[in-house]
């Protein structure tokens, strides 16, 4: 607006402000407390260290979601505090094992665990493979856009940045229309 090549959105203080209200009530991947059920369910099959838990979750999401260590390790600590898992040091790694109390809790909460698993894993079945591939393609496009934007920004050409902002603004407007379609 005032000579900045990175601010060509007179209508909005930030390019995504117009969308913030749209996504306020969108559902999160994991609802509050869901992760503990999912992790216990993973550990009932075999003990694992935190990285293995993260990898198992990423596999179940077909690579479309990878939980951060900042979301997995606090839940493992909580489960340990609740005495649903124990940890032991093996070759410098903390291995988590479900306890009898954890198995009992998981059994008592079987219906809840099943609902969570159906919600999270249901879209990963064979009939949705084309859908998953389309999501991967979209994610690849976003990576390419990010990389290309970096190359454009390095050249310090304000006119190009403004052109890119205009292209992205139009794209975001079209995407919002798609999002709002019933």
UniProtKB/TrEMBL annotation:
SUPFAM superfamilies: Winged helix' DNA-binding domain (SSF46785). It comes from the Bacteria. InterPro entries: Tscrpt_reg_PadR_N, WH-like_DNA-bd_sf, WH_DNA-bd_sf. This is PadR family transcriptional regulator.
């Amino acid at each position: 607006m005032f000579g900045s090549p990175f601010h060509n959105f007179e209508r909005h203080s930030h390019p995504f402000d117009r969308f913030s209200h749209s996504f306020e009530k969108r559902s999160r991947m994991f609802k509050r407390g869901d992760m503990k059920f999912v992790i216990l369910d993973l550990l009932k099959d075999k003990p694992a260290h935190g990285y293995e838990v993260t990898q198992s979750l990423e596999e179940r999401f077909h690579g479309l979601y990878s939980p951060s260590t900042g979301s997995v390790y606090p839940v493992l600590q909580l489960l340990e505090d609740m005495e649903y898992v124990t940890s032991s040091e093996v070759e410098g790694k903390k291995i988590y094992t479900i306890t009898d109390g954890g198995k009992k809790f998981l059994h008592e909460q079987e219906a809840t665990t099943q609902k969570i698993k159906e919600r999270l894993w249901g879209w990963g079945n064979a009939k949705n493979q084309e859908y998953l591939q389309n999501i991967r393609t979209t994610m690849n496009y976003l990576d390419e856009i990010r990389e290309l934007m970096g190359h454009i920004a390095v050249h310090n050409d304000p006119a190009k940045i403004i052109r890119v902002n205009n292209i992205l603004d139009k794209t975001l407007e079209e995407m919002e229309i798609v999002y709002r379609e019933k």
